[in-house]
Amino acid sequence: MRIIIVGGGVVGFSLAEHLHRESHDISLIEKNPETCRDLGERLDIKILCGSGSSPRLLEAAGINGAEMIIAVSPNDELNILVCSVAMQYKVPTRIARIRSNEFRGGDSSIDIGQMGVTLVIDPESVVVDAITQFVETPGASDATNFQEGNVLMRGYQVTEDMPVANKAIKDVRQAAREHPMLFIAAIRDGKAFIPDGDYVVRPGDDVFGIFARSSIDAYLSMFNKTRKDVDNVIISGDSLTAVLLADELRKFVDKVTLVDPDAEHASLAANTLNNVEIVHGDCTDSAILNEVYVGNAKFFIGAAKETDYNVMSGLLAKAEGAREVIVVSAEIRHDKLFASIGIDHLIYPRLAIAREILEAINRGQIGRIARIRDLDIEAIRITAAENSPITGRPLQHVRSKIQKGSIIGTVLRGDEMIIPDGNTVIEPGDEMIMITYTINVPRVRKLFKSR
Predict the structure, then answer these.
(1) pLDDT over threshold 60, residue 369
(2) Which of 78, 197, 340, 371 is the most exposed place for a label (fewest CB within 10 A)?
(3) What does the domain layout of the chain look like in residue ranges?
(4) Which 3-state string (H, E, C) describes the chain?
(5) Whole-prediction pTM
(6) 371 versus 307: which is more confidently predicted?
(7) What is the mean pLDDT of the chain?
(8) May I ask the CATH class of domain 2-121?
(9) Which superfamily is assigned to 230-352 in CATH?
(10) For 279-318, how does the pLDDT look when each residue is reduced to its tens digit (9 = 90+)?
(11) What kind of architecture, by CATH, is found in domain 354-447?
């Protein structure tokens, strides 16, 4: 597929890197000459320096015959203009990152589709969703949602007192047979692998499972967790993300407190939010943290505009007793370093946006949609072709064809989600989330193509 990306920041770079790895024909347009030079050294793709709205430059990038354009520059107006120009070149898929409420949402009087955009990526909503994934499954070490939030992947570190400890995976699945789930990866003593049914989960293991949203409570119970644990969340921030997050969390959290360092912004938030306690104050001040009883908070979330403020307030909140701390960071920093000093989860908006776009454009196609932590294990989306070697027969009869160390995590058939077993028959058109080692990806793809 020929794809043009406009914007060479973290989002554009991440998209180009992933899509080029998938053997797509990628061109990237970036205005900053220094960024262009850096991208040219790091990526083996066509890099063009200049404005992404220039028809001349777009033609040089190959817009005639392009199947997709992705506009992810920091400028909303430029991204919309790029899509408008691309529409006139008959590019079928035109994606724009848009931050302003004036151009998106049900309240907007503007029809963004008529301006040429076929898919809008809303940065704030993406970040809110990334944070909410952790809040709705307390204690998770890793959290990823698929299929518009209907398929969940969660990782947990196992302790001796958890029901899953010292049990074979096949026995765990049997005990939870009314709530199908599949354990797709495990880490023991620093070594990662895809476990089979005979694998016995030991205390200290990190295990990753995939399951339907309807099975969330059953899955959490395996790790002695419950959504009812989260009854008190404190959000720190003067950003739109903080306000939207408070509005989302109040739907399922008993007490949500927003601490805003900006008095004017706090006043506006108070006029917008219902059933959220608004406090004007600085969360880098221990007195303010004590005032809002941060020691009782199940989650403290740093979602201000400034990364340093989020990090400092998060560290203080952890020191004062907050159970889990989430920090929004504009900078790509060292996760392990921050984890060692008390921050449980780092949310990188630009990487979250890149992943959201990849998930959107890979629906119905073969494509990588997630990498499990920093391991060589990946979740990829595959659509079964009419006459592939895998379709039409129970999985137990074709298991020998599937690359060793690969498993089908879920089968998506229309609106139905299936956690497969040996009797499951893959039908043409089924979409699967397949878990495999990175090295196996090319071979796995072949199994689902027409013979």
Answers:
(1) no
(2) 340
(3) 2-121, 127-227, 230-352, 354-447
(4) CEEEEECCCHHHHHHHHHHHHCCCEEEEEECCHHHHHHHHHHCCCEEEECCCCCHHHHHHHCCCCCCEEEECCCCHHHHHHHHHHHHHCCCCEEEEECCCHHHCCCCCCCCCCCCCCCEEECHHHHHHHHHHHHHCCCCCCEEEEEHHHCEEEEEEECCCCCCCCCCEHHHHHHHCCCCCEEEEEEEECCEEECCCCCCECCCCCEEEEEEEHHHHHHHHHCCCCCHHHCCEEEEECCCHHHHHHHHHHCCCCCEEEEEECCHHHHHHHHHHCCCCEEEECCCCCHHHHHHCCHHHCCEEEECCCCHHHHHHHHHHHHHCCCCEEEEECCCCCCHHHHHHCCCCEEECHHHHHHHHHHHHHHCCCCEEEEECCCCCEEEEEEECCCCCCCCCCEHHHHHHHCCCCCEEEEEEECCEEECCCCCCECCCCCEEEEEEEHHHHHHHHHHCCCC
(5) 0.83
(6) 307
(7) 88
(8) alpha beta
(9) NAD(P)-binding Rossmann-like Domain (3.40.50.720)
(10) 999 999 999 999 999 999 999 999 999 999 999 999 999 9
(11) 2-Layer Sandwich (3.30)
| pLDDT single digits (tens) 115-153 | 999 999 888 899 999 999 999 999 999 998 887 788 899
